[in-house]
């Protein structure tokens, strides 16, 4: 979702429009379907959720903030474990399509050390909470309506203009795989299994 044809006057008004534009861009829904491919375009991501060679993996800063449950969420709490990070929006069709599969992946691999962290930046916190309840999401969801934490992710890992997105963090805290668009349960499970097997 992009803003076009907007005319503004004055520095304060320009600043307000920039903020509004940023919020809408972060809330934009990708065009990917519920398969292994990516939607949205424009991102330098590997498809479909392919593992990056270990020597090329980028270190990830600690993503932290308030969770949808009101508790503090921090990626650093999962240090030494494989983490699947999934960005979504309650009004996004592909996000709704992929969520049941991601919940099943989380339950299937939890005993082997997988941790899942959701990411949501929409303005309507109530809608986001209802989404979590509807799909039985039990893992923490970082609620970041300002989009600040998303912009700290290394360039090229995700396209900040679209959701859903998914990326995986290896046991050393590096980005091991990423994609834009909805990821299938089969593909997510396969890559998670490969990462869990790494020494």
Topology, element by element:
Layout: H1 11-27, E1 58-59, E2 64-66, E3 72-74, E4 82-88, H2 93-109, E5 114-120, H3 125-135, E6 141-143, E7 165-169, E8 174-180, H4 185-197
Parallel strand pairs: 4-5, 5-6
Antiparallel strand pairs: 1-8, 2-3, 4-7, 7-8
Descriptive account of the structure:
- Residues 54-197 form the Thioredoxin domain.
- This is TlpA disulfide reductase family protein.
- InterPro entries: Redoxin, Thioredoxin-like_sf, Thioredoxin_domain, Thioredoxin_ResA/DsbE_sf.
- The structure is a single chain.
- The chain has 199 residues and is an alpha/beta fold.
- The protein contains four helices and eight strands, in the order αββββαβαβββα.
- α2 (93-109) runs parallel beside α4.
- The count of helical stretches stands at 4
Number of strands: 8
Uncertain residue segments: 1-9, 13-28, 31-47
- Biggest sheet, in brief? 6 strands, mixed
Helix content: 25-40%
Shape designation: globular
How big a fraction of the residues is strand?
Answer: 15-25%
- Structural class designation: alpha/beta
Ends distance: 41 Å
Report mean pLDDT, rounded to a whole number: 83
Helix-strand pattern: HEEEEHEHEEEH
Spatially, the strands of the biggest sheet line up as: 1-8-7-4-5-6
Radius of gyration, CA atoms, in whole angstroms: 16 Å
